[in-house]
Design brief:
It is a single chain. The chain is of the alpha+beta class. It has 18 helices and 26 strands. It has four domains: 189 residues, Heat Shock Protein 90 (2-Layer Sandwich), CATH 3.30.565; 129 residues, 2-Layer Sandwich (Ribosomal Protein S5, domain 2), CATH 3.30.230.10; 37 residues; 195 residues, formyl-coa transferase, domain 3 (2-Layer Sandwich). This is DNA mismatch repair protein MutL. Belongs to the DNA mismatch repair MutL/HexB family.
């Protein structure tokens, strides 16, 4: 078959397959262009999930009429100097507009502030028309209709209009977080309008914008991050462990203001929360990395969502260390969402699904309430006549009243017998003073303005685990010498990586050395691991070092053993504690980082503010 030159239209359509994956990709490229143009107001209108219409209007600097034809031509950009490593704008490849125009009906209207009128250029399936004069205000309007009409096969891979509209909202929200001084609005026949008002510069404006996107609960459950290492600065907010989600969609990362979805960053976030959150739960974080553009490559993929760092180990260590330090210094905190969930479960107004077999009744909280129930007619009324109660109207009421008063007095006496008298100064502590233990597992504590319920087993499990970790990592771990060294065959490059980390591995009890060009000799293994599959451990460590340039895998294994030991060595459920023991447990929790969750990520305590309790009883 003869070799031939591809046409410009085919080249653009091939390029579009990399840049324009779905309608959300179009919105991302157009919004980034508007931001680079200095816009302070960006409006997005969609229809049919973006497949029928996408219109992005901004009040940026605009495009001169004599440059409009270049703007929709490949490899033409105003955002890149002669140094491809010095990229300071969101866009730089010069592929977005021509790629969009090759697979849709694109029109771009723009006007410079000093120009007498605006100009419009159209690109239909790669064919250019214009520019021509058009009336408009300053800024740019990019309109995309009939996306993928020129490549109908791509339409078969699109999701429903609702799903595509949701993806567009997610893209806009991710971009909006990095630019709180810009107002973003999304509207259209396929969606509920979304308006993100400008919140201004600075940390306060950033936190307010984040709350617009993630909800008002996030600022109440987040810790500020600000760390610097070797020219790389990390800022942002990390959610406390107890405030988590079922997926990672609430994790936002930015590199020099660019939203990215980088697996190295996600891996670092998982590592930072490894000890304090369950494996099937995900923390809520917003992180901003700022560094010299020469130290990061953003030209990895045409979609510009992936990046490569010159020193990935430095970035990972900075993220893990900064988050862990922030969590440790924040003191003990419970997620506000836990109290809200408890309140919702108590509220009689809240409707939950009826349990199996319950029909014709309103299921309220944990009990069924029959709307036709009457105490006099019920065959199961609680106060039977033969128990000494009178059936006359007045007599029945008097007997019930007397019974309830007597019963309440008896219950109050029981309650007084089970409570603990405490010193008033203990109420000032974050977890207050222990007042009672119920069901031999839950400690009820009181502060000046709240009620705290502590799971004693989960709390003590965390305390024992942290003590074990500190003992393990504060000094080199004991190692057991092998009578016959284990020889593990590996590729040469893996041997070099392992030997480079030999000193770190030795601190954890694993002694290795090179055994020729393609093997390592294992002479010592950590004593606390007992008998292990040494070759598999070495191969796993080599894979981890190759991917992340760290040897944390062995540390993670040892931490897992410590967690197992802590689980079996902590205070068991069902053990009755003395008042001094309960208060000692509360004080230890206040002093131990990460004690808000157990080793498995479950909360160790729930706090109900007095205002929440009063609201529960309708006093507010």
């Amino acid at each position: 078959m003869a070799i031939k030159q591809l046409t410009e239209t085919i080249i653009n359509q091939i390029a579009a397959g990399e840049v324009i994956e779905r309608p959300a990709s179009v919105v991302k490229e157009l919004v980034e262009n508007a931001i680079d143009a200095g816009a302070t107001r960006i409006e997005i209108v969609t229809a049919g999930g973006g497949k029928n219409l996408i219109r992005v209007t901004d009040n940026g600097s605009g495009i001169p009429s004599n440059e409009l034809s270049l703007a929709v031509s490949r490899h033409c950009t105003s955002k890149l100097t002669d140094d491809v490593h010095d990229i300071r704008a969101l866009g730089f490849r010069g592929e977005a507009l021509p790629s969009i125009g090759s697979v849709s009906r694109l029109s771009v209207k723009s006007r410079k502030a000093e120009a007498d009128s605006g100009f419009e250029i159209s690109v239909h399936g790669g064919r250019m028309d214009g520019p021509r004069p058009t009336p408009m205000n300053g800024g740019t309007i990019a309109e995309v209709r009939d996306l993928f009409f020129a490549t109908p096969a791509r339409l078969k891979f699109m999701k429903t209009d609702r799903a595509e509209a949701s993806a567009i909202s997610d893209v806009v929200k991710r971009v909006a977080i990095a630019f709180p001084h810009i107002r973003f609005s999304i509207a259209g026949s396929d969606r509920t309008p979304l308006d993100l008002a400008a919140t201004g510069e600075g940390s306060a404006g950033m936190l307010e914008r984040i709350s617009q996107v993630l909800g008002k609960e996030f600022p109440e459950n987040a810790i500020a991050i600000d760390a610097m290492r070797d020219g790389v600065r990390l800022t942002g907010f990390a959610g406390i462990p107890a405030f988590n989600r079922a997926n990672s969609l609430h994790q936002f990362a930015y590199v020099n203001g660019r939203p990215v979805r980088d697996k190295q960053i996600w891996g670092a976030i998982r590592g930072a929360y490894a000890d304090v959150i369950s494996r099937d739960r995900h923390p809520v974080v917003v992180l901003f990395l700022n560094l010299d553009p020469a130290l990061v490559d953003v030209n990895v993929h045409p979609a510009k969502a992936d990046v490569r760092f010159r020193d990935p180990g430095l970035v990972r260590g900075l993220i893990v260390g900064a988050i862990r330090e922030a969590l440790g210094q924040s003191g003990i905190r419970a997620a506000t969402s836990g109290a809200e969930a408890m309140l919702n479960s108590f509220r009689l107004g809240g409707r939950e699904p009826s349990p199996p077999g319950v029909t014709g009744q309103h299921w309220q909280g944990a009990r069924a309430v029959n709307q036709n129930y009457h105490v006099q007619r019920s065959p199961y009324r609680p106060l039977e006549p033969e128990s000494g109660f009178k059936n006359s109207e007045n007599g029945f009421a008097e007997t019930v009243q007397t019974f309830l008063y007597d019963r309440a007095e008896a219950l109050a006496a029981d309650a007084r017998a089970g409570t603990i008298e405490v010193a008033p100064d203990l109420l000032s502590n974050p977890l207050g003073a222990a007042r009672a233990q119920i069901h031999a597992n839950y400690i009820v504590s009181q502060t000046k303005d709240s009620l705290v319920i502590v799971d004693q087993h989960a709390a003590h499990e965390r305390l024992v685990y942290e003590a074990l970790k500190n003992a393990l990592h504060s000094r080199p771990l004991p190692a057991q010498m092998l009578l016959i060294p284990e020889i593990v065959d590996l590729p040469e490059e893996d041997v070099e990586r392992l030997v480079a980390h030999a000193e770190t591995l030795a601190r954890f009890g694993l002694g290795i050395e090179s055994f020729g060009p393609g093997a390592v000799a294992v002479r010592e293994t950590p004593s606390m691991l007992g008998e292990i599959d040494t070759p598999q451990l070495i191969r796993d460590l080599a894979d981890e070092i190759a991917e992340h340039d760290t040897s944390n895998g062995l540390k993670a294994i040892l931490d897992h053993v410590a967690a197992t030991m802590a689980c079996h060595g902590s205070v068991r459920s069902g053990r009755r504690l003395k008042p001094d023991e309960m208060n000692a447990l509360l004080r230890q929790m206040e002093e131990t980082p990460g004690s808000g969750t157990c080793n498995h990520g479950r909360p160790t305590y729930i706090e109900l503010k007095l205002s929440d309790i009063e609201r529960l009883f309708g006093r507010r």
